[in-house]
């Protein structure tokens, strides 16, 4: 709006009136007025310091109150000793001291401040980032309200056992609270809202306390099983000056991340005996791998035993190209097994039992009588009462408490010691059978993918085949979970590197997908050279479409593909199931579950947020061109969305 604009003039006049009415206390010192720069291009008379500052939304200058460091500067010093490259936040005055220190005193580096448009994004992006970067980033949430907004993302990270460092601000002492809003945003115990879903929290009472708790929190977040950690930074501690004599008394402890837990050696040796003696062992890997090394170790163990591996895909565990990757035969293999080795099971009961959700919810064992169960997991090291992500109790014959990834090398050695020539030849015969079975998988998957090849709305399989055709030329990473894909990428694509797949959401809280993809894409960007792809449901995407703005703002390129079935289709199916159960009409199942009429134009939404938007694509013949364009734009550094009108998954 120009200076001569009538509305602008009215607004200035109004603001001027306020200043006059408010008196000297908000007009600022007269010296500041005299220094106010006049705009040489403006036809209007030069504004006073007070009006121009107010118009720009800045408070008039106040006398400098703090000549030395502030408490929040020291807090920044603490954060800088930790390996935190980024901090994501939607701004809020409970941490205004800290924010100002990060951007000015900390020079907005290590960590760099990233702007998110919702606190769920700040935390959720840190969740996705940690899974790719292998280390946490920070998120900052505004008091009571920001904490509540972030709770869903904290829960997903907690359930997924992923480290995130979350800070909040709080005006603790009543006399420190500004009247009004600050009382709504302050609280007695900031972490109470999320205490059951974080690994640890603290509300430091002093700067020394802040240093120790933040360093402790970082170490705890990273120790297996990892999880989100929540630290409250008191507003008065942040904003008070830190005099030199006080600072001299402060120290920042060195971070010391505990070594990972390794399974007991005797239990591991027993497990090795059981595995070597078994005629039909099966390895099930779930929240297992955190590195390429862990994938390589799993291959080593499977090859030693010539045992099939079922990948439950909470992480990228087993190369889909390896003949011992037999996830396709999952349930069947488990029911024939005489020994099951389960690595970091999220749900051991679910791996060993069938629950058909039609007329009942009762589980039936799918295993043979006498089957031996070995579990290696940190599951029992992190159990809460209220949130019951531990699932049904399932006894194991050998229950090794320890990090499976860290324990595997000793299990491999123990297995090696147990193998004799007799067992070796039995294993070779087993291996031959596995190769034969594996040879059929790819052909069958392709034949199934060809069904409905030309259908419109487009089939998932066709979309994934067309996408692969373009991606195979690239160093690529899929940063969406298996939930939306009906397993097509794992069935159709050669996936053999750890960075190619990110695993699941943890808590199945819808909204994870777009936010985790943003953080994962940031971590991949820093490695460089990778084309990052997120496939997301339309329902998922609508929880946080503005992730694209953060991506555009901070130069985070990736391709978002909307699997647009114009519905919360999983819920459509639930309603159909209920209608069937109650012997009523299933045709009303769209009520309250569809996202159509009006249809959302996702390409326009993306463009509005500063990303490239392509689509809607309804004809499968147009997919190749859309993917080519999308990937080219991603390689040029842009976030891109392609809206594909697809069949229900
Ligand atoms: C926060 C949250 N709200 C609601 C749900 C219930 N829910 C599970 S799947 C789903 C549908 C998601 O829709 P979309 O992403 O479009 O996937 P579709 O089922 O259509 O493939 C919903 C609403 C949930 N899991 N989490
Ligand atoms: Mg949908």
Explain what this protein looks like in three dimensions:
With 649 residues, the chain is α/β, with parallel strands linked by helices. The chain has a six-stranded parallel β-sheet, with helices on both faces. It has a five-stranded parallel β-sheet with strand order 10-9-11-14-15, with helices on both faces. Strands 16-17-18-20-19 form a five-stranded parallel β-sheet, sandwiched between helices. Helix 5 (71-80) packs across helix 6, helix 7 packs across helix 21 (512-527) and helix 13 crosses helix 17 (404-418). Magnesium ion binds next to helix 22. The site of thiamine diphosphate has 17 residues, from helix 22 and helix 24.
Task: Provide a concise account of the structure shown.
43% of the residues lie in helices and 14% in strands.
- Rg result: 28 Å
How many helices? The count is 26
Q: What shape does the CA trace take? A: globular
What ligand species are in this complex?
thiamine diphosphate, magnesium ion
Percent strand equals 5-15%
Low-confidence stretches: 1-55
Quick one: how many beta strands?
20
The largest pleated sheet is described as:
6 strands, parallel
Characterize the quaternary organization of these chains: single chain
User: Residue-averaged pLDDT, rounded?
Assistant: 90
Main-sheet strand order equals 3-2-4-5-7-6
State the share of residues found in helices, binned by percent.
Answer: 40-55%
Distance, first to last CA: 48 Å
SSE class: alpha/beta
């Amino acid at each position: 709006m120009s200076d001569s604009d009538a509305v602008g003039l009215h607004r200035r006049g109004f603001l001027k009136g306020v200043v006059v009415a408010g008196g000297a206390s908000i007009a600022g010192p007269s010296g500041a007025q005299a220094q106010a720069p006049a705009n040489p291009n403006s036809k209007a008379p030069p504004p006073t310091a007070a009006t121009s500052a107010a118009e720009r939304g800045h408070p008039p200058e106040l006398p400098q109150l703090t000549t030395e460091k502030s408490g929040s500067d020291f807090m920044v010093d603490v954060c800088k000793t930790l390996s935190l490259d980024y901090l994501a936040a939607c701004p809020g005055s409970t941490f205004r001291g800290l924010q100002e220190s990060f951007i000015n005193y900390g020079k907005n580096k290590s960590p760099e401040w990233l702007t998110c448009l919702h606190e769920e994004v700040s935390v959720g992006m840190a969740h996705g980032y940690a899974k790719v970067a292998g280390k946490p980033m920070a998120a900052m949430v505004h008091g009571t309200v920001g904490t509540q907004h972030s709770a869903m993302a904290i829960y997903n990270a907690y359930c997924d056992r992923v480290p995130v460092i979350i800070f909040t601000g709080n005006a603790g002492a009543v006399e420190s609270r500004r009247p009004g809003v600050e009382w709504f945003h302050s609280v007695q115990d900031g972490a109470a809202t999320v205490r059951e879903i974080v690994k640890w929290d603290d509300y430091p009472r002093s700067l020394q306390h802040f240093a120790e708790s933040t360093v402790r929190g970082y170490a705890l977040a990273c120790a297996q099983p990892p999880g989100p950690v929540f630290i409250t930074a008191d507003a008065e501690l942040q904003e008070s000056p830190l005099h030199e004599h006080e600072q001299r008394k402060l120290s920042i402890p060195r971070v010391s991340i505990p070594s990972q837990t390794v399974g007991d050696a005797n239990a591991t040796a027993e497990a090795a005996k059981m595995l070597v003696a078994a005629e039909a062992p099966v390895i099930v890997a779930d929240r297992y791998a955190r590195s390429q090394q862990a994938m390589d170790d799993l291959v080593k163990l499977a090859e030693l035993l010539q045992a099939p591996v079922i990948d439950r895909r909470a992480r990228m565990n087993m190369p889909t190209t390896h003949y011992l990757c037999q996830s396709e035969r999952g349930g069947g293999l488990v029911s024939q097994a005489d020994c099951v080795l389960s690595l970091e099971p999220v749900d051991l009961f679910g791996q060993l039992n069938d629950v058909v959700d039609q007329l009942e919810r009762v589980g039936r064992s799918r295993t043979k009588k006498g089957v031996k169960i070995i579990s290696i997991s940190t599951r029992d090291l992190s159990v809460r009462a209220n949130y019951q992500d531990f699932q049904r109790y399932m006894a194991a014959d050998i229950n090794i408490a320890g990090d499976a990834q860290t324990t595997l090398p000793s299990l491999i050695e123990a297995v090696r010691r147990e193998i004799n020539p007799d067992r070796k030849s039995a294993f070779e015969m087993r291996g031959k059978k596995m190769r034969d079975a594996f040879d059929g998988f790819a052909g069958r998957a392709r034949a199934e993918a060809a069904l409905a090849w030309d259908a419109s709305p487009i089939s998932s399989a066709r979309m994934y085949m067309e996408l692969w055709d373009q991606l195979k030329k690239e160093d690529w990473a899929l940063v969406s979970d298996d939930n939306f894909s009906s397993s097509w990428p794992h069935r159709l694509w050669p996936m053999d590197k750890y960075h190619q797949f990110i695993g699941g959401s943890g808590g199945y809280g819808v909204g994870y997908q777009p936010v985790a993809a943003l953080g994962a894409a940031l971590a991949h960007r820093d490695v460089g050279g990778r084309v990052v792809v997120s496939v997301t449901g339309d329902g998922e995407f609508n929880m946080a479409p503005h992730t694209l703005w953060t991506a555009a703002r901070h130069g985070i390129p990736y391709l978002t593909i909307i699997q647009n079935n114009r519905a919360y289709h999983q819920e459509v199916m639930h309603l159909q199931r209920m209608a069937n159960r109650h012997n009523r009409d299933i045709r009303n199942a769209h009520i309250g579950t569809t996202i159509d009429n009006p249809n959302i134009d996702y390409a326009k939404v993306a463009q509005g947020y500063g990303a490239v938007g392509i689509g809607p694509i309804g004809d499968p013949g147009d997919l190749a061109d859309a993917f080519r364009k999308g990937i080219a734009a991603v390689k040029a550094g842009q976030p891109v969305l392609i809206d594909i009108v697809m069949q229900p998954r």
